[in-house]
Amino acid sequence: MSQTQQIAATESTSTPGWDAIADHPPSAKLVAKVLEYNDALTQSQIAEHSKLPGRTVRYALGRLEEVDVVESRPSFRDARKRVYSLAIEDDPGPV
């Protein structure tokens, strides 16, 4: 494998793109878009921005975390909550 192929392979596996959520339900795509426009949000903030029920947001976040599209960390303000952010860095394609 040439050095160019190794770099391309590393780049393609390091950060998932919008293609990773192409087969996900519309609610997961909406959650990803909300996180794209807002840096980092809690689950309740995502539900508020997206107008989706909390349970739907929780399901969508779980699906997005499985494919490494969303990252989560504990909230510094309230340790009982988690803060979610988008892990996609490239330009959005057709979603």
Question: If you had to describe this structure to a student in words, what would you say it looks like?
Answer:
With 95 residues, this protein is of the alpha+beta class. It has one domain: Orthogonal Bundle (Arc Repressor Mutant, subunit A), CATH 1.10.10.10. The chain is 47% helix and 14% strand. It contains 4 helices and 3 strands; from the N terminus they run ααβααββ. The chain has helices at residues 3-14, 26-37, 43-50, 54-66; strands spanning 40-42, 70-74, 82-86. The protein has a 3-stranded antiparallel sheet with strand order 1-3-2. α2 crosses α4 and α3 (43-50) crosses α4 (54-66). It is globular, with a radius of gyration of 15 Å. The N and C termini lie far apart (33 Å). Residues 4-13 have low confidence and may be disordered.
Which outline best applies? Answer: globular
- Main structural class: alpha+beta
Integer-rounded radius of gyration: 15 Å
- Secondary-structure element order, N to C: HHEHHEE
List keywords for this structure.
Arc Repressor Mutant, subunit A; alpha+beta; globular; 3-stranded antiparallel sheet; 95 residues
In short, what is this structure?
This protein is of the alpha+beta class and 95 residues long. It has helices at 3-14, 26-37, 43-50, 54-66; strands spanning 40-42, 70-74, 82-86.
Topology of this structure?
Elements lengths: L2 H12 L11 H12 L2 E3 H8 L3 H13 L3 E5 L7 E5 L9
Antiparallel strand pairs: 1-3, 2-3
